[in-house]
Amino acid sequence: MNKEIKIIPLCGIFFLGFIAWFFPPQSIDSNSWHTLVVFLCTIIGIVLNVMPIGAVGLLGVTVFALTAAAGAQSSKQAIMDALSGFDSYLIWLIVVAFFIAKGFIKTGFGKRIALIMVKFFGKKTLGLVYGLSIADLILAPATPSNTARCGGVIYPIANALSQSFKSLPNDPSRKKMGTYLITSIGNINDITAAMFITAYAANPLIVKLAEGFGVKLSWIGWFVAAVGPAIISLILIPIVLYFIIKPEIKNTPEAKEFAESELKKLGPVSRDEKVMAFTFIGVLVLWIFGKQLGIHSTTTALIGLSSLIISGVLTWDDIKGEKAAWDTLVWFSALLMMATFLNKLGFTQWFGNTIGEELKFMASVNWIIILAVLTMIYTYTHYFFASGTAQVAALYSVFLGVGINLGIPAYPLALLLGFTSSLYCSLTQYTHARGPILFGSGFVTTKEWWSAGFAINLLNQAIFLIAGLAWWKIIGLY
């Protein structure tokens, strides 16, 4: 028996889906209901981890095609509907960005950036966190897996730094430095993930879902909207956590020696690192100015990847072996396809109107207050999810539709819900794939993680609501 498959939960999902299929509410079209059933079963399969995530996505696509859930009149149309998610340029943008991110890790360029930041900012413990934060920020635009960015590049350096100062995991000495460093890099990673479409796998899905409500965001448009409140969070989070966790070691003059020693082991900058740096800068420039040059953001990503392959920095075996990218292509396409059909078939509007009717008593309340309430509900619902992207797929359009029906301007609502979809990732150690890596290090207890995550999330909500609304007003988004 395949140990990757949890037979009992999988059968339970099929059984519940089969029962629900035949009992659509009278007020909803049967095709909308059938699409919703397949969609929710796919989401539940991802949350319960009944199979590898790519396999769950493929199974969802198969069931969608087999049942003609969207009402296709022929088997050919049904399979075309089911596979329609694979032709999204946003999905290919994020997948290609995964491949580019591989270059950072393979060449050691990402590690070198982080060590250089430690070298220049690491005289104090607080400075170490700022140094690692800047490294995360530099890597974020071309690293859509914030798990790989934080867990694969930043965490190993933070872990090594902690232990070099005799701050050891699963030991009282962890409070000397390790608890502070590990907690900080996780919460900072949420901010860098919110800053770029290509910094978090859920962001392109948010962009696509928001388009259905008339909100259109380019790569540079997303960044400009995020940068105002995000910079404030990046500055304040290390300081606030410093006072919450209170690391025992305040000064770290040895950190510079540690970084220099590790840089020496890396040796001089290699030819591949130089190519990686040049390609990265070129991709960023085209993402920023490509629209004026008539070059699409996904085309830019393809140019970057092709350059890395032609130059030999990446091989085709590297591309084939990047499992996270291919997983993302499959399950992301499945969720995007079903979410798009839910919108086309009218379910999203129907559900939004239904919830809006229940909340119409709030219509006389200032829209900013409604925005704050909806954002808080959306945020704390995340305690019941083990995947940030799964929550986006299941709830983003619903909350966006409800808010618009209650009179909230579309752009501020779409942006705040979108950024919140990154900011909630550190609430618990199970709500994001990065969590088990950091929590498993042994430096942070459950109580410390939850309390710090809740406090920082409140801070971020306040910053993005107050400073965000002010910034979006200045740049003319509403």
Automatic annotation (TrEMBL):
Compartmental location: Membrane
GO molecular function, one term: transmembrane transporter activity
Gene Ontology annotations for the cellular component aspect, listed alphabetically: membrane
InterPro entries: CitT-rel, SLC13A/DASS
Membrane topology: Multi-pass membrane protein
Any Pfam family matching the protein: Na_sulph_symp
Keywords: Membrane, Transmembrane, Transmembrane helix
TM annotation in the entry: 6-24, 36-69, 89-109, 180-202, 222-245, 275-293, 299-316, 328-347, 367-386, 393-414, 449-472
Keyword set includes rRNA-binding: no
Domain of life of the source: Bacteria
Family per similarity comment: Belongs to the SLC13A/DASS transporter (TC 2.A.47) family. DIT1 subfamily.
Protein's name in the database: DASS family divalent anion:Na+ symporter
Organism annotation: Malaciobacter marinus
